[in-house]
Automatic annotation (TrEMBL), chain B:
Pfam families: ABC2_membrane_6. InterPro entries: ABC-2_transporter-like. This is ABC transporter permease. The chain crosses the membrane at residues 20-41, 61-79, 118-137, 143-165, 177-203, 231-250. Keywords: Membrane, Transmembrane, Transmembrane helix. It comes from Streptomyces purpureus. The lineage of its organism: Bacteria, Bacillati, Actinomycetota, Actinomycetes, Kitasatosporales.
């Protein structure tokens, strides 16, 4: 952006300005949401219930079987809880970026470009929906259930793995969201492609990797590295072998992968933003 | 009648305009279809013949679900948001003094939309799924016809439910919550997440008796040849019964609601 800031100092300044602006816009949306408290309570519960149906489906499956792909219900609950919480956090903080295509189409993105605030911060905070907390709660609830009923031989490293997985997982999902948004600069109507990766990805991760084809598991490890969100760390916690013949030390890489993904997503965003051409009028 | 035909054609063409969006939607349907297909394989590996389906039938059920998700608007959508918006802003007053029937107008548009979604969003995921997984396709052309009739009835039931819910905006003004509930019930009770024959005990009986089973469970069973002869007639009667009942309720509510608009002065 043409703020004239260059070099590392300029970058840090820009980042701080972006985060601050993001916070201000978010606060404004929260205040506006809180005007209709009943509606907020209802939609938050709705968000909770919407994601809860995913887990109810798994429970219904387990009404007919003891194991799915060799995994018990508590083990799947751990996978589900980690993926659900990580995805919920990203959806809460960045979920609005998939509306970018609409803004490109109707030309309202121009308004954001002339404001002295990073565009990504504005797009991410746009229509911030606190009700998405419902999704986070649901993920945490299932995670809590898993941790209570699971019989794990805990070590400090395994304990540390859980918060690490959630934070790294949220960052990896964030990278997917932002890359998807950058793609919408090119293909404005393609919001559903992004949904395939974000919502589809989080659904995929709710199930154990053993039930999917090996190529698919390798694809979400090396191409779109979703496997680092929960599969690899959770399988380490459960004391299971890494999926699809992958090496076990990959379980410790989520933070590294997350940083790499966020970097690439930032790059994609810049390229996308630079290629933007207004619809004009 | 010609007017409503024109509205239906308009509904079809309106959705057909967005080709990239359609392709993107097919992509999303296919991704979800793959994920669900693998979970079903895992489940049917453990329990062959679960819910009265063998594995190939269960996989066919998955891809039928993806094919009909948009057609029968199981996640809501279609005209719902638009009508809620028009009610909230008061634009519905203009619709009401047009010399057409409000309910039939929206029904015609929604049928056009559904026809497009069946072709644009239904065929491609089904073909892609069929390339990778072993699916059961009816050999008898009459079964295909029976299936299409059942889908059409499902669309009408789906419309009737969504119309009823959208009308609630006359009282609630903010339709977000209602639309959300409509999406949840639509997904869960249609059999989209899991065939209703797998729901245990009373939950299963209730789920199979609710209108949403017309959206996927019944068309899928017709496709798989589970309803033939008198069974097929009974399935149609179930769908048509709900359609008539819900359309009637929508009409009654519409009468009450329009009186309310007049009282408010628009």
């Amino acid at each position: 952006m043409g703020s004239g800031a260059t070099g590392p100092v300029g970058r840090v300044w820009q980042l701080r300005a972006g985060v601050r602006a993001y916070g201000l816009i978010v606060m404004m949306w929260i205040r506006s949401t809180m005007t209709y408290r009943a509606s907020f309570a209802m939609t938050t519960f709705g968000n909770f219930a919407a994601t809860a149906f995913d887990f109810v489906t798994i429970l219904l499956m387990f009404a007919h079987t003891e194991a799915l792909g060799g995994y018990s219900l508590p083990e799947i609950a751990l996978l589900y809880g980690l993926a659900g919480t990580a995805f919920g956090l990203t959806d809460l903080l960045l979920g609005s970026v998939d509306r970018l295509g609409r803004r490109v189409r109707d030309g309202t993105l121009d308004t954001l470009l002339v404001r002295p605030v990073p565009v990504l911060a504005q797009v991410a905070a746009d229509r911030f929906a606190l009700r998405r907390l419902g999704r986070v709660f649901q993920g945490l609830l299932v995670l809590g259930y898993a941790l209570v009923v699971l019989d794990v031989d805990w070590s400090p490293l395994k304990v540390l793995m859980l918060p690490l997985a959630v934070v790294s997982g949220a960052a990896i999902f964030a990278a997917v969201f932002v890359t998807g948004a950058a793609f919408q600069f090119v293909a404005q109507d393609a919001a559903e492609v992004q949904n395939g990766f974000t919502y589809g990805g989080s659904t995929l991760l709710q199930y154990p990797p053993t039930i999917f084809a090996k190529e698919l598991v390798r694809g979400v490890t090396f191409v779109v590295p979703l496997a680092f969100v929960n599969w690899l760390p959770a399988l380490y916690v459960l004391g299971r072998e890494a999926p699809a013949g992958l090496p076990g030390w990959l379980a410790f890489l989520p933070p590294v992968v997350a940083v790499g993904c966020v970097g690439l997503a930032g790059l994609a965003w810049r390229v996308g933003l630079r290629s933007y051409r207004s619809t004009g009028s | 009648m010609r007017l409503y035909m024109a509205v239906a054609v308009g509904g079809f063409r309106r959705y057909a305009t967005y080709r990239v969006a359609t392709a993107a939607g097919v992509f999303a349907n296919t991704v979800f279809g793959f994920i669900m297909a693998y979970t079903y394989i895992a489940l049917w590996d453990e329990r062959p013949r679960l819910g009265g389906y063998d594995q190939a039938e269960a996989l066919t059920f998955v891809w039928l679900g993806q094919a009909l998700l948009m057609t029968c608007a199981m996640m809501g959508g279609g005209f719902g948001e638009e009508l809620v918006d028009r009610i909230r802003t008061g634009d519905v007053a203009i619709d009401l003094y047009r010399p057409v029937d409000l309910q039939l107008w929206w029904l015609a548009g929604d049928l056009g939309r559904a026809a497009f979604h069946l072709i644009g969003r239904g065929i491609a995921p089904m073909v892609l799924g069929g390339l990778v997984f072993e699916l059961v396709l009816p050999a008898d052309p009459l079964t295909w016809v029976a299936f299409l009739v059942s889908v059409a009835l499902g669309v009408v039931v789906s419309f009737a439910v969504r119309y009823l819910l959208a009308l609630s905006a006359f009282w609630l003004l903010d339709g977000t919550g209602v639309l959300q509930i409509s999406m949840l019930t639509g997904l869960f009770f249609s059999g989209m997440l899991l065939p209703l024959t797998l729901f245990p005990g009373a939950l299963g009986e209730v789920a199979r008796a609710l209108p949403w089973s017309s959206l996927l469970q019944i068309p899928a069973d017709v496709f798989l040849g589970k309803h033939t002869g008198w069974g097929l007639i009974r399935a149609y009667a179930f769908q048509a019964g709900w359609a008539v009942l819900l359309l009637g309720a929508g009409r009654a509510l519409q009468t009450v609601a329009t009186r309310r608009v007049v009282v408010q002065g628009g």
